[in-house]
Design goal:
Layout: H1 2-11, E1 15-16, E2 19-20, H2 21-34, H3 39-47, H4 66-73, H5 75-86, H6 89-92, E3 100-102, E4 109-111, H7 114-134, H8 136-152, H9 159-167
Antiparallel strand pairs: 1-2, 3-4
Helix pairs in contact: 1-2, 2-3, 2-7, 3-5, 4-5, 7-8, 7-9
Length: about 170
Amino acid sequence: MIEDFLAARGAAELAHPGGTLLAHLGRTRDALVAWGARPALQLAGFAHAAYGTAGFPQSLVSLAERHVLVDLVGGEAEAIVYAYCALDREFSYPRLLSRVVRDRFTGVESRAEPALVRDLVELTFANELDVLAQSPELRKRHAGDLKALLSSWSAYASVPAAEALERL
């Protein structure tokens, strides 16, 4: 259902490393499934770019339509999607393990719950590892910095996610 919805919103046509955004969303979800993530995080993985992200600003769903995404994936998964999309990466990534984040949509800084930090870390691993696996050019340019960042977060990642980082 979420796949059809996001495809209808243009995800099947938007270019993304490895093909289309829809294909990337599926691979991100598949990684989370393989790593044993709970269902809400798997659904969030599939919808993780719905509102656009700091790294991929094209939105498929407006913030005024959050209720639509809640209806499709549930409140828990939508909250993860919102947090992921809203994450001001430049500000938040260096502070994530101290749980300080800034919402790029509102500019509000807050303290994230430890469970949300774990979800954001796991989702970031799945997302970024897929992008690097699909794009030799991006891997060449960003693998070192990304490996350093994700390695610094490994204590919050699942063992399979940390192992996937090492393999890449």
